[in-house]
Amino acid sequence: MKRIAVIGTGYVGLVTGTCFADLGNRVICLDIDAEKIERLKQGIIPIYEPGLEEMVRRNIQAGRLTFTTSYEEAIPNSDIVFIAVGTPEGVDGEADLKYVEMAAKSIAEVMDHPIIIVNKSTVPVGTGDWVADIVNRHKKNDVPFWVVSNPEFLREGNAIQDFLNPDRVVLGSTDREAAEQVAQLYLPLRAPIMVTDLRTAEMIKYASNAFLATRISFINEIASICEKLGADVKEVAIGMGYDKRIGHHFLDAGVGYGGSCFPKDVKALAHMAALHGCHPQLLRAVMEINRDKRREVVQKLRDLLDDLNGKTIGLLGLAFKPNTDDMREAPSVEIAHLCRREGAYVKGYDPVAKETARKALPWMEQAADPYELAKGCDAIVILTEWNEFKHLDLKRIRELMRQPIIVDGRNIYEPEQMAELGFVYRGMGRGY
Ligand code: UGA
Where along the chain is the active site annotated (predicted)? Predict the structure, then answer.
Protein backbone atom coordinates (compact mmCIF):
# COMPACT_ATOMS: atom_id res chain seq x y z
CA MET A 1 0.00 0.00 0.00
CA LYS A 2 1.40 3.38 -1.03
CA ARG A 3 0.23 6.87 -0.20
CA ILE A 4 -0.52 8.63 -3.48
CA ALA A 5 -1.76 12.09 -4.40
CA VAL A 6 -3.10 12.88 -7.87
CA ILE A 7 -3.30 16.53 -8.94
CA GLY A 8 -6.02 17.11 -11.54
CA THR A 9 -9.29 15.16 -11.78
CA GLY A 10 -9.72 15.25 -15.55
CA TYR A 11 -10.05 11.91 -17.26
CA VAL A 12 -6.37 10.97 -16.88
CA GLY A 13 -6.11 12.00 -13.21
CA LEU A 14 -9.41 10.48 -12.18
CA VAL A 15 -8.80 7.18 -13.96
CA THR A 16 -5.23 6.96 -12.62
CA GLY A 17 -6.21 7.80 -9.04
CA THR A 18 -9.21 5.50 -9.01
CA CYS A 19 -7.35 2.55 -10.53
CA PHE A 20 -4.44 2.93 -8.10
CA ALA A 21 -6.98 2.97 -5.24
CA ASP A 22 -8.59 -0.14 -6.69
CA LEU A 23 -5.18 -1.82 -6.61
CA GLY A 24 -5.16 -1.26 -2.83
CA ASN A 25 -3.33 2.05 -2.49
CA ARG A 26 -4.55 5.02 -0.50
CA VAL A 27 -5.20 7.81 -2.98
CA ILE A 28 -6.12 11.44 -2.48
CA CYS A 29 -7.23 13.28 -5.62
CA LEU A 30 -6.90 17.04 -5.73
CA ASP A 31 -8.49 19.62 -7.98
CA ILE A 32 -8.75 23.39 -7.69
CA ASP A 33 -12.37 23.19 -8.92
CA ALA A 34 -14.29 23.07 -5.61
CA GLU A 35 -17.62 22.21 -7.22
CA LYS A 36 -16.11 19.25 -9.05
CA ILE A 37 -14.52 17.98 -5.83
CA GLU A 38 -17.83 18.26 -3.95
CA ARG A 39 -19.55 16.15 -6.59
CA LEU A 40 -16.71 13.64 -6.67
CA LYS A 41 -16.98 13.21 -2.90
CA GLN A 42 -20.56 12.07 -3.55
CA GLY A 43 -19.34 9.70 -6.25
CA ILE A 44 -20.60 11.82 -9.17
CA ILE A 45 -18.03 11.92 -11.95
CA PRO A 46 -17.69 14.83 -14.38
CA ILE A 47 -16.98 12.76 -17.51
CA TYR A 48 -18.52 9.87 -19.39
CA GLU A 49 -16.20 6.90 -18.99
CA PRO A 50 -17.69 3.40 -18.88
CA GLY A 51 -17.18 1.69 -15.50
CA LEU A 52 -15.49 4.65 -13.84
CA GLU A 53 -18.32 5.93 -11.65
CA GLU A 54 -18.90 2.52 -10.14
CA MET A 55 -15.18 2.12 -9.43
CA VAL A 56 -14.98 5.59 -7.86
CA ARG A 57 -17.90 4.80 -5.53
CA ARG A 58 -16.49 1.41 -4.56
CA ASN A 59 -13.16 2.93 -3.57
CA ILE A 60 -14.70 5.87 -1.72
CA GLN A 61 -16.71 3.37 0.32
CA ALA A 62 -13.62 1.27 1.01
CA GLY A 63 -11.93 4.42 2.34
CA ARG A 64 -9.06 4.19 -0.16
CA LEU A 65 -10.10 7.15 -2.34
CA THR A 66 -10.67 10.69 -1.09
CA PHE A 67 -10.96 14.11 -2.71
CA THR A 68 -9.73 17.52 -1.69
CA THR A 69 -9.00 21.02 -2.97
CA SER A 70 -6.20 21.50 -0.45
CA TYR A 71 -2.52 20.95 -1.18
CA GLU A 72 -1.87 21.18 2.60
CA GLU A 73 -4.05 18.12 3.02
CA ALA A 74 -2.83 16.13 0.01
CA ILE A 75 0.94 16.56 -0.11
CA PRO A 76 2.11 16.02 3.50
CA ASN A 77 0.14 12.76 3.51
CA SER A 78 1.58 11.34 0.28
CA ASP A 79 4.88 9.85 -0.87
CA ILE A 80 4.19 9.82 -4.60
CA VAL A 81 2.45 12.77 -6.24
CA PHE A 82 1.13 12.49 -9.79
CA ILE A 83 0.63 15.66 -11.83
CA ALA A 84 -2.24 14.95 -14.22
CA VAL A 85 -3.47 18.44 -15.06
CA GLY A 86 -4.54 19.63 -18.49
CA THR A 87 -2.05 20.96 -21.03
CA PRO A 88 -4.29 22.81 -23.47
CA GLU A 89 -3.07 23.99 -26.84
CA GLY A 90 -1.42 27.36 -26.51
CA VAL A 91 0.04 29.80 -29.00
CA ASP A 92 1.29 28.26 -32.30
CA GLY A 93 0.38 24.72 -31.25
CA GLU A 94 2.74 24.89 -28.30
CA ALA A 95 1.37 23.09 -25.20
CA ASP A 96 0.26 25.58 -22.55
CA LEU A 97 1.91 24.60 -19.26
CA LYS A 98 0.30 27.06 -16.89
CA TYR A 99 -1.54 24.34 -14.93
CA VAL A 100 1.61 22.21 -14.64
CA GLU A 101 3.47 25.25 -13.36
CA MET A 102 0.73 26.02 -10.81
CA ALA A 103 0.73 22.42 -9.59
CA ALA A 104 4.55 22.30 -9.26
CA LYS A 105 4.61 25.57 -7.29
CA SER A 106 1.79 24.49 -4.99
CA ILE A 107 3.46 21.13 -4.29
CA ALA A 108 6.76 22.88 -3.54
CA GLU A 109 5.17 25.29 -1.08
CA VAL A 110 3.72 22.60 1.19
CA MET A 111 6.28 19.80 0.71
CA ASP A 112 7.56 18.77 4.15
CA HIS A 113 9.07 15.31 3.53
CA PRO A 114 10.82 13.52 0.63
CA ILE A 115 8.43 12.92 -2.29
CA ILE A 116 8.48 11.64 -5.83
CA ILE A 117 6.72 13.91 -8.31
CA VAL A 118 5.42 12.00 -11.32
CA ASN A 119 4.41 13.80 -14.45
CA LYS A 120 1.48 12.13 -16.22
CA SER A 121 0.30 15.08 -18.29
CA THR A 122 1.51 15.15 -21.89
CA VAL A 123 4.20 17.78 -21.76
CA PRO A 124 6.87 19.03 -24.15
CA VAL A 125 10.20 17.29 -23.99
CA GLY A 126 12.24 18.99 -21.26
CA THR A 127 9.28 19.76 -18.97
CA GLY A 128 10.45 17.28 -16.31
CA ASP A 129 13.66 19.29 -15.85
CA TRP A 130 11.62 22.49 -15.79
CA VAL A 131 9.29 21.10 -13.09
CA ALA A 132 12.32 20.13 -10.98
CA ASP A 133 13.60 23.66 -11.36
CA ILE A 134 10.27 25.21 -10.27
CA VAL A 135 10.05 22.96 -7.22
CA ASN A 136 13.63 23.76 -6.26
CA ARG A 137 12.96 27.48 -6.51
CA HIS A 138 9.69 27.40 -4.52
CA LYS A 139 10.22 24.78 -1.86
CA LYS A 140 9.99 26.12 1.69
CA ASN A 141 11.59 23.13 3.42
CA ASP A 142 14.91 21.62 2.55
CA VAL A 143 13.64 18.14 1.68
CA PRO A 144 14.72 16.02 -1.28
CA PHE A 145 12.40 15.21 -4.18
CA TRP A 146 12.68 13.40 -7.49
CA VAL A 147 10.87 13.95 -10.79
CA VAL A 148 9.70 10.99 -12.86
CA SER A 149 7.92 11.09 -16.22
CA ASN A 150 5.21 8.46 -16.62
CA PRO A 151 3.24 9.16 -19.80
CA GLU A 152 -0.27 7.76 -20.07
CA PHE A 153 -1.53 5.69 -22.96
CA LEU A 154 -5.22 5.60 -22.04
CA ARG A 155 -7.90 5.83 -24.67
CA GLU A 156 -11.08 7.64 -23.74
CA GLY A 157 -13.96 5.24 -23.44
CA ASN A 158 -11.55 2.41 -22.71
CA ALA A 159 -9.46 4.05 -20.04
CA ILE A 160 -9.98 1.56 -17.19
CA GLN A 161 -9.20 -1.42 -19.39
CA ASP A 162 -6.16 0.37 -20.79
CA PHE A 163 -4.95 1.26 -17.30
CA LEU A 164 -5.34 -2.26 -15.94
CA ASN A 165 -3.98 -4.02 -19.04
CA PRO A 166 -1.27 -1.72 -20.41
CA ASP A 167 0.93 -2.78 -23.32
CA ARG A 168 3.78 -1.15 -21.44
CA VAL A 169 4.56 1.25 -18.61
CA VAL A 170 7.13 3.93 -19.43
CA LEU A 171 9.08 5.64 -16.66
CA GLY A 172 11.74 8.27 -17.15
CA SER A 173 13.93 9.82 -14.50
CA THR A 174 17.41 11.04 -13.73
CA ASP A 175 17.19 8.87 -10.61
CA ARG A 176 16.71 5.16 -11.27
CA GLU A 177 15.65 4.42 -7.71
CA ALA A 178 12.81 6.97 -7.89
CA ALA A 179 11.62 5.39 -11.15
CA GLU A 180 11.74 1.97 -9.51
CA GLN A 181 9.60 3.20 -6.62
CA VAL A 182 6.96 4.26 -9.12
CA ALA A 183 7.40 0.96 -10.98
CA GLN A 184 6.32 -0.85 -7.79
CA LEU A 185 2.85 0.65 -8.18
CA TYR A 186 2.45 -1.05 -11.54
CA LEU A 187 3.82 -4.48 -10.60
CA PRO A 188 0.35 -5.99 -10.01
CA LEU A 189 -0.47 -5.27 -13.67
CA ARG A 190 2.29 -7.60 -14.92
CA ALA A 191 3.07 -5.36 -17.88
CA PRO A 192 6.49 -4.68 -19.39
CA ILE A 193 8.04 -1.74 -17.56
CA MET A 194 10.59 0.39 -19.37
CA VAL A 195 12.84 2.71 -17.38
CA THR A 196 14.65 5.42 -19.29
CA ASP A 197 15.68 9.04 -18.91
CA LEU A 198 13.20 11.88 -18.48
CA ARG A 199 13.36 13.38 -21.95
CA THR A 200 13.19 10.03 -23.70
CA ALA A 201 10.06 9.08 -21.73
CA GLU A 202 8.45 12.39 -22.65
CA MET A 203 9.34 11.81 -26.29
CA ILE A 204 7.91 8.26 -26.29
CA LYS A 205 4.47 9.70 -25.60
CA TYR A 206 4.58 12.20 -28.48
CA ALA A 207 6.15 9.73 -30.88
CA SER A 208 3.51 7.09 -30.07
CA ASN A 209 0.57 9.43 -30.62
CA ALA A 210 2.16 10.91 -33.74
CA PHE A 211 2.77 7.42 -35.14
CA LEU A 212 -0.84 6.38 -34.57
CA ALA A 213 -2.04 9.62 -36.17
CA THR A 214 0.30 8.90 -39.09
CA ARG A 215 -1.25 5.46 -39.60
CA ILE A 216 -4.68 7.09 -39.73
CA SER A 217 -3.61 9.75 -42.23
CA PHE A 218 -1.79 7.10 -44.24
CA ILE A 219 -4.86 4.91 -44.61
CA ASN A 220 -6.96 8.00 -45.29
CA GLU A 221 -4.65 8.95 -48.15
CA ILE A 222 -4.85 5.40 -49.47
CA ALA A 223 -8.66 5.76 -49.20
CA SER A 224 -8.62 8.81 -51.48
CA ILE A 225 -6.51 6.89 -53.99
CA CYS A 226 -8.77 3.82 -53.72
CA GLU A 227 -11.75 5.97 -54.55
CA LYS A 228 -10.16 7.18 -57.78
CA LEU A 229 -8.93 3.73 -58.79
CA GLY A 230 -12.04 1.78 -57.86
CA ALA A 231 -10.54 -0.23 -54.97
CA ASP A 232 -12.04 -0.80 -51.52
CA VAL A 233 -9.90 0.61 -48.69
CA LYS A 234 -11.59 -1.57 -46.07
CA GLU A 235 -10.39 -4.70 -47.81
CA VAL A 236 -7.02 -3.10 -48.53
CA ALA A 237 -6.54 -2.45 -44.79
CA ILE A 238 -7.48 -6.03 -43.94
CA GLY A 239 -5.07 -7.36 -46.55
CA MET A 240 -2.28 -5.12 -45.27
CA GLY A 241 -2.97 -5.93 -41.63
CA TYR A 242 -2.26 -9.65 -42.01
CA ASP A 243 1.38 -8.70 -42.38
CA LYS A 244 2.61 -8.94 -38.79
CA ARG A 245 4.91 -6.00 -39.38
CA ILE A 246 1.86 -3.87 -40.17
CA GLY A 247 -0.95 -5.29 -38.00
CA HIS A 248 -4.66 -4.52 -38.11
CA HIS A 249 -4.92 -1.66 -35.63
CA PHE A 250 -5.50 1.97 -36.52
CA LEU A 251 -6.14 1.36 -40.19
CA ASP A 252 -9.80 2.39 -40.25
CA ALA A 253 -10.23 5.02 -42.95
CA GLY A 254 -12.80 7.71 -42.33
CA VAL A 255 -13.17 11.40 -41.54
CA GLY A 256 -9.85 11.50 -39.70
CA TYR A 257 -8.75 11.70 -36.11
CA GLY A 258 -10.11 14.09 -33.49
CA GLY A 259 -10.16 14.28 -29.72
CA SER A 260 -8.10 16.03 -27.12
CA CYS A 261 -4.86 14.16 -27.88
CA PHE A 262 -3.86 13.40 -31.47
CA PRO A 263 -4.54 16.84 -33.01
CA LYS A 264 -2.87 18.66 -30.12
CA ASP A 265 0.07 16.29 -29.77
CA VAL A 266 0.96 16.10 -33.47
CA LYS A 267 0.84 19.88 -33.65
CA ALA A 268 2.93 20.28 -30.50
CA LEU A 269 5.55 17.80 -31.73
CA ALA A 270 5.78 19.58 -35.08
CA HIS A 271 6.12 22.86 -33.22
CA MET A 272 8.89 21.54 -30.96
CA ALA A 273 10.68 20.12 -33.98
CA ALA A 274 10.51 23.38 -35.93
CA LEU A 275 11.61 25.34 -32.89
CA HIS A 276 14.77 23.28 -32.78
CA GLY A 277 15.61 23.58 -36.45
CA CYS A 278 14.02 20.36 -37.75
CA HIS A 279 11.64 20.20 -40.71
CA PRO A 280 8.80 17.91 -39.67
CA GLN A 281 7.56 17.23 -43.22
CA LEU A 282 5.78 14.01 -42.41
CA LEU A 283 3.97 15.46 -39.38
CA ARG A 284 2.81 18.40 -41.48
CA ALA A 285 1.45 16.05 -44.14
CA VAL A 286 -0.34 14.04 -41.44
CA MET A 287 -2.10 17.19 -40.22
CA GLU A 288 -2.93 18.36 -43.74
CA ILE A 289 -4.48 15.05 -44.76
CA ASN A 290 -6.52 15.05 -41.56
CA ARG A 291 -7.83 18.54 -42.24
CA ASP A 292 -8.67 17.69 -45.85
CA LYS A 293 -10.68 14.61 -44.88
CA ARG A 294 -13.32 16.72 -43.18
CA ARG A 295 -13.58 18.96 -46.21
CA GLU A 296 -13.85 15.90 -48.43
CA VAL A 297 -17.07 14.91 -46.66
CA VAL A 298 -18.60 18.28 -47.50
CA GLN A 299 -17.36 17.95 -51.09
CA LYS A 300 -19.15 14.58 -51.34
CA LEU A 301 -22.35 16.29 -50.18
CA ARG A 302 -21.91 19.01 -52.80
CA ASP A 303 -21.35 16.40 -55.50
CA LEU A 304 -24.52 14.56 -54.52
CA LEU A 305 -26.78 17.53 -53.80
CA ASP A 306 -25.42 20.05 -56.35
CA ASP A 307 -25.77 22.81 -53.82
CA LEU A 308 -26.10 22.71 -50.02
CA ASN A 309 -28.15 25.90 -49.86
CA GLY A 310 -31.60 25.18 -48.41
CA LYS A 311 -30.85 21.47 -47.90
CA THR A 312 -31.28 19.65 -44.59
CA ILE A 313 -28.23 17.70 -43.44
CA GLY A 314 -28.41 15.25 -40.53
CA LEU A 315 -25.21 14.43 -38.65
CA LEU A 316 -25.44 10.95 -37.18
CA GLY A 317 -22.87 10.80 -34.37
CA LEU A 318 -21.28 13.92 -32.93
CA ALA A 319 -18.62 12.75 -30.43
CA PHE A 320 -15.08 12.44 -31.81
CA LYS A 321 -15.36 8.65 -31.40
CA PRO A 322 -17.76 6.15 -29.78
CA ASN A 323 -18.04 5.54 -26.02
CA THR A 324 -17.33 9.11 -25.08
CA ASP A 325 -19.23 12.39 -24.93
CA ASP A 326 -16.07 14.30 -25.84
CA MET A 327 -16.55 16.85 -28.59
CA ARG A 328 -13.03 18.26 -28.58
CA GLU A 329 -11.73 18.46 -32.16
CA ALA A 330 -14.62 16.27 -33.24
CA PRO A 331 -14.97 16.22 -37.05
CA SER A 332 -18.69 16.90 -36.54
CA VAL A 333 -17.99 20.45 -35.35
CA GLU A 334 -16.11 21.55 -38.45
CA ILE A 335 -18.41 19.68 -40.82
CA ALA A 336 -21.50 21.25 -39.17
CA HIS A 337 -20.00 24.72 -39.58
CA LEU A 338 -18.97 24.11 -43.20
CA CYS A 339 -22.47 22.90 -44.15
CA ARG A 340 -24.14 25.77 -42.35
CA ARG A 341 -21.87 28.29 -44.06
CA GLU A 342 -23.12 26.99 -47.40
CA GLY A 343 -26.72 27.59 -46.39
CA ALA A 344 -27.70 24.10 -45.21
CA TYR A 345 -29.98 23.46 -42.25
CA VAL A 346 -27.94 21.20 -39.96
CA LYS A 347 -29.26 18.90 -37.24
CA GLY A 348 -27.53 16.19 -35.27
CA TYR A 349 -27.93 13.18 -33.04
CA ASP A 350 -25.54 11.43 -30.67
CA PRO A 351 -26.53 8.82 -28.09
CA VAL A 352 -24.24 10.32 -25.41
CA ALA A 353 -22.66 13.60 -26.51
CA LYS A 354 -25.73 15.77 -26.01
CA GLU A 355 -24.76 18.39 -23.46
CA THR A 356 -21.20 18.62 -24.82
CA ALA A 357 -22.58 18.95 -28.36
CA ARG A 358 -24.93 21.69 -27.20
CA LYS A 359 -21.91 23.60 -25.93
CA ALA A 360 -19.82 23.00 -29.06
CA LEU A 361 -22.67 23.65 -31.53
CA PRO A 362 -25.23 25.75 -29.63
CA TRP A 363 -27.11 26.71 -32.80
CA MET A 364 -27.63 23.14 -33.98
CA GLU A 365 -30.94 21.32 -33.45
CA GLN A 366 -30.51 17.94 -31.77
CA ALA A 367 -32.86 15.10 -32.60
CA ALA A 368 -34.12 12.69 -29.93
CA ASP A 369 -33.16 9.58 -31.93
CA PRO A 370 -31.80 8.58 -35.35
CA TYR A 371 -35.30 8.33 -36.83
CA GLU A 372 -36.27 11.81 -35.78
CA LEU A 373 -32.96 12.95 -37.23
CA ALA A 374 -33.76 11.31 -40.56
CA LYS A 375 -37.08 13.14 -40.93
CA GLY A 376 -36.90 15.53 -43.87
CA CYS A 377 -33.14 15.10 -44.41
CA ASP A 378 -31.68 15.56 -47.87
CA ALA A 379 -28.61 13.70 -46.69
CA ILE A 380 -27.31 11.97 -43.56
CA VAL A 381 -23.63 12.00 -42.70
CA ILE A 382 -22.30 9.36 -40.32
CA LEU A 383 -19.51 10.80 -38.20
CA THR A 384 -19.19 8.46 -35.20
CA GLU A 385 -19.32 4.67 -35.43
CA TRP A 386 -21.57 4.06 -32.41
CA ASN A 387 -22.63 0.41 -32.27
CA GLU A 388 -26.30 1.36 -32.19
CA PHE A 389 -25.95 2.89 -35.67
CA LYS A 390 -24.96 -0.50 -37.05
CA HIS A 391 -28.39 -1.93 -36.25
CA LEU A 392 -30.74 0.79 -37.42
CA ASP A 393 -33.95 0.08 -39.32
CA LEU A 394 -32.50 1.50 -42.53
CA LYS A 395 -35.70 0.99 -44.50
CA ARG A 396 -37.50 3.23 -42.03
CA ILE A 397 -34.66 5.76 -42.19
CA ARG A 398 -34.92 5.87 -45.98
CA GLU A 399 -38.67 6.41 -45.87
CA LEU A 400 -38.28 9.30 -43.42
CA MET A 401 -35.67 11.13 -45.52
CA ARG A 402 -36.48 13.64 -48.23
CA GLN A 403 -33.68 12.22 -50.37
CA PRO A 404 -32.11 8.82 -49.61
CA ILE A 405 -28.49 10.04 -49.50
CA ILE A 406 -25.99 8.73 -46.97
CA VAL A 407 -22.35 9.80 -46.69
CA ASP A 408 -20.76 7.26 -44.38
CA GLY A 409 -17.73 8.98 -42.84
CA ARG A 410 -16.90 5.87 -40.81
CA ASN A 411 -17.58 3.09 -43.30
CA ILE A 412 -20.02 1.29 -41.03
CA TYR A 413 -22.26 0.04 -43.85
CA GLU A 414 -21.60 -2.01 -46.97
CA PRO A 415 -22.09 -0.23 -50.33
CA GLU A 416 -23.90 -3.15 -52.01
CA GLN A 417 -26.36 -3.56 -49.15
CA MET A 418 -27.07 0.17 -49.10
CA ALA A 419 -27.68 0.20 -52.85
CA GLU A 420 -30.11 -2.71 -52.45
CA LEU A 421 -31.97 -0.72 -49.79
CA GLY A 422 -32.36 2.10 -52.29
CA PHE A 423 -29.83 4.54 -50.87
CA VAL A 424 -27.43 6.75 -52.77
CA TYR A 425 -24.46 5.80 -50.63
CA ARG A 426 -20.88 7.07 -50.42
CA GLY A 427 -18.32 5.67 -48.01
CA MET A 428 -14.74 6.78 -47.57
CA GLY A 429 -12.39 5.14 -50.08
CA ARG A 430 -14.72 2.36 -51.15
CA GLY A 431 -14.51 2.71 -54.92
CA TYR A 432 -17.53 3.90 -56.88
C1 UGA B 1 -5.30 8.46 -27.92
C2 UGA B 1 -4.34 7.26 -27.86
O3 UGA B 1 -4.92 6.13 -28.53
C4 UGA B 1 -4.00 6.88 -26.44
O5 UGA B 1 -3.02 5.85 -26.42
C6 UGA B 1 -3.44 8.12 -25.73
O7 UGA B 1 -3.15 7.86 -24.38
C8 UGA B 1 -4.45 9.24 -25.80
O9 UGA B 1 -4.72 9.54 -27.18
C10 UGA B 1 -3.86 10.45 -25.12
O11 UGA B 1 -2.84 10.95 -25.58
O12 UGA B 1 -4.35 10.81 -24.04
P13 UGA B 1 -7.95 8.80 -27.70
O14 UGA B 1 -7.71 10.21 -28.17
O15 UGA B 1 -8.82 8.57 -26.54
O16 UGA B 1 -6.54 8.08 -27.35
O17 UGA B 1 -8.62 8.06 -28.92
P18 UGA B 1 -8.27 6.93 -30.00
O19 UGA B 1 -9.12 5.76 -29.73
O20 UGA B 1 -6.84 6.71 -30.10
O21 UGA B 1 -8.82 7.64 -31.32
C22 UGA B 1 -8.30 8.91 -31.75
C23 UGA B 1 -8.97 9.35 -33.03
O24 UGA B 1 -8.52 8.58 -34.12
C25 UGA B 1 -10.50 9.24 -33.04
O26 UGA B 1 -11.03 10.40 -33.63
C27 UGA B 1 -10.77 8.02 -33.92
O28 UGA B 1 -12.01 8.10 -34.55
C29 UGA B 1 -9.62 8.12 -34.89
N30 UGA B 1 -9.25 6.82 -35.50
C31 UGA B 1 -8.73 5.83 -34.75
C32 UGA B 1 -9.42 6.63 -36.87
O33 UGA B 1 -9.89 7.54 -37.58
N34 UGA B 1 -9.04 5.45 -37.42
C35 UGA B 1 -8.52 4.44 -36.70
O36 UGA B 1 -8.20 3.38 -37.28
C37 UGA B 1 -8.36 4.63 -35.32
Answer: 261
Phi, psi for 430 (deg, rounded to 5): -115, 35
pLDDT of residue 432 exceeding 70: no
Q: Pick from 167, 196, 225: which residue ends a domain?
A: 196
Q: Which residues pair with 271 in a beta bridge?
A: none
Q: Please give the ipTM for the structure prediction.
A: 0.97
- Is the model's pTM score more than 0.90? yes
79 labelled ligand-binding: no
Q: Is 286 in the pocket of ligand 1 (CB under 6 A)?
A: no
CA of 383 to the centre of ligand 1 (A): 15
For ligand 1, the distance from its centroid to the CA atom of residue 260, given in whole angstroms, is: 9
> Do 283 and 150 belong to one domain?
no
The atom of ligand 1 lying closest to the CA of 331 is 26
In a domain, 207, yes or no: no
